[in-house]
């Protein structure tokens, strides 16, 4: 059965990818009386259903308790008031279904994927997990300890944490600087009461969406969703809108994180980026493909293929709902740090010194048109996209105009977008490595602040 489903899914994916123009499939948007947003998208290619709950609450809402949203999101899967964790795990595992949860910077999710035939059993259980979590103290304690252990190990590999240092450096004391995973000290201090309070404050119908994509009839699914979630009621005032922070790059700065036993230097270079709903999101994806978004990019060619300074170099925009970041990322042997950084800056400067010619642009456009649609073929991928659109206020026009935005990109337009969005001056740099070996190099790229990697947190 599973082999047939996979084969059918692959066939449907191939057919979808071959389409000349990518457009988001039709879906219904419904708002229930309690304020809950519901997205329903029918897809009958395979007998599968993907359901996702998205709550607009993440690390930006953690305040002085970094990691609270992440712990809460994962704790939803520890059992409900009617079923313990073992019963829930067995119910999904027995049917070959998948259940997952978690939280990021601005949103928390619970998602499940199962066969259409299992919907009568698993959809009510999914609702139960979201609406009636038990937050069992014993299970929560074990989860917290696993997270603390993971945090202690994470800094052994700088690539695991360099983005946390980068965000903390760029956003300072604002909510966007809060690491979603928290810190060893902050997560160690979290208690059951903290999780319960966070849940009561942010997990409410007027701050959430339910996304269902797959093999069902909309009219029937709407009735099921209303039956399962219609009685969900918010308590107290809705969470107030907040400013999550803006990047201040009034001067070039370097955060030098000392890892005394390092034999490599891991680095990020960049600055402010764009919000997820920025109208230039798609064309910027094309332009970044040239710079550092694929194996044949300028950065990878220069730093890996031509010079052998690294095993890989990349760049990219990391959008958030209100703003975003841009960064070039790579790593190199400690004694190659000066050469790698110099070549990175030189290659990045090509965006302004020579621009992107028509042939290079056409190659990137073809690549993106081939890579973008396959990201949104399966029901699970589409449910993720609709959830992302909800959390970041992205209109479907951005998706539907994908092909148009790619095709209309010219060298002249590319130049204007580069000047508008790619940070050029007062670049911000994070270096993680042996400070004694790279301290003097760091000084050439801005005002240096040093931090020990063994210190708790990221700033």
Automatic annotation (TrEMBL):
InterPro entries for the chain: Metalloenz_LuxS/M16, MPP/UQCRC_Complex, Pept_M16_N, Peptidase_M16_C
Keyword Ubl conjugation attributed: no
Sequence ranges assigned to domain Peptidase M16 C-terminal in this UniProt record: 193-366
Leader sequence residues: 1-19
Domain Peptidase M16 N-terminal, chain residue ranges per copy: 45-180
Record-linked Pfam families: Peptidase_M16 (PF00675), Peptidase_M16_C (PF05193)
Keyword GTP-binding attributed: no
Keywords attached to this entry: Signal
Any one GO molecular function term: metal ion binding
Name used for this protein in its record: Insulinase family protein
Species annotation: Duganella rivi
């Amino acid at each position: 059965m599973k082999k047939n489903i996979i084969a059918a899914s692959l066939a449907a994916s191939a057919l979808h990818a071959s389409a000349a123009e990518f457009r988001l499939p039709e879906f219904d948007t419904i708002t229930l009386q309690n304020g809950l947003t519901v997205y329903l998208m029918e897809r009958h290619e395979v007998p599968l259903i993907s359901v996702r709950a998205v709550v607009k609450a993440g690390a930006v809402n953690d305040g002085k308790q970094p990691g609270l949203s992440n712990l809460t999101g994962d704790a939803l899967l520890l059992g409900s008031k009617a079923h313990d964790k073992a019963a829930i795990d067995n119910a999904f595992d027995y049917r070959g279904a998948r259940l997952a949860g978690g939280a990021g910077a601005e949103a928390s999710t619970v998602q499940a994927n199962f066969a259409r035939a299992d919907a009568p059993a698993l959809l009510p259980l999914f609702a139960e997990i979201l609406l009636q979590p038990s937050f069992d103290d014993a299970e929560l304690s074990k989860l917290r300890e696993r997270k603390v252990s993971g945090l202690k190990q994470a800094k052994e590999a700088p690539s695991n944490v360099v983005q946390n240092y980068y965000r903390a450096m760029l956003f300072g004391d604002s909510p966007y600087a809060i690491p979603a995973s928290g810190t060893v000290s902050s997560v160690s201090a979290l208690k059951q009461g903290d999780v319960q309070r966070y849940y009561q404050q942010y997990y409410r119908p007027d701050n959430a969406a339910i996304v269902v994509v797959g093999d069902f009839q909309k009219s029937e699914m709407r009735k099921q969703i209303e039956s399962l979630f219609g009685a969900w009621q918010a308590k107290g005032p809705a969470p107030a809108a907040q400013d999550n922070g803006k990047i201040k790059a009034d001067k070039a700065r370097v955060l030098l994180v000392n890892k005394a036993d390092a034999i490599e230097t891991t680095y990020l270079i960049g600055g402010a980026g764009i919000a997820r709903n920025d109208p230039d999101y798609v064309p910027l994806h094309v332009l970044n493909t040239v710079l550092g978004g694929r194996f044949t990019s300028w950065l990878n060619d220069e730093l890996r293929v031509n010079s052998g300074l690294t095993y890989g170099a990349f760049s990219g925009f990391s959008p958030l709902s209100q703003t975003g970041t841009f960064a070039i990322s790579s790593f190199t042997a400690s004694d190659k740090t000066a050469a790698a950084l110099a070549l990175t800056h030189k290659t990045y400067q090509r965006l302004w010194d020579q621009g992107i010619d028509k042939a290079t642009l056409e190659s990137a456009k073809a690549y993106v048109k081939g890579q973008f649609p396959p990201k949104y073929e399966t029901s699970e991928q589409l449910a993720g996209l609709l959830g992302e659109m909800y959390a970041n206020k992205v209109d479907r026009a951005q998706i539907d105009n994908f092909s148009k935005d790619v095709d209309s990109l010219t060298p002249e337009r590319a130049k204007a977008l580069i000047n508008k969005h790619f940070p050029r001056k007062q670049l911000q740099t994070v270096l993680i490595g042996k400070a004694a070996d790279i301290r003097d190099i760091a000084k050439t790229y801005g005002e240096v602040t040093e931090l020990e990697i063994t210190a708790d947190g990221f700033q």
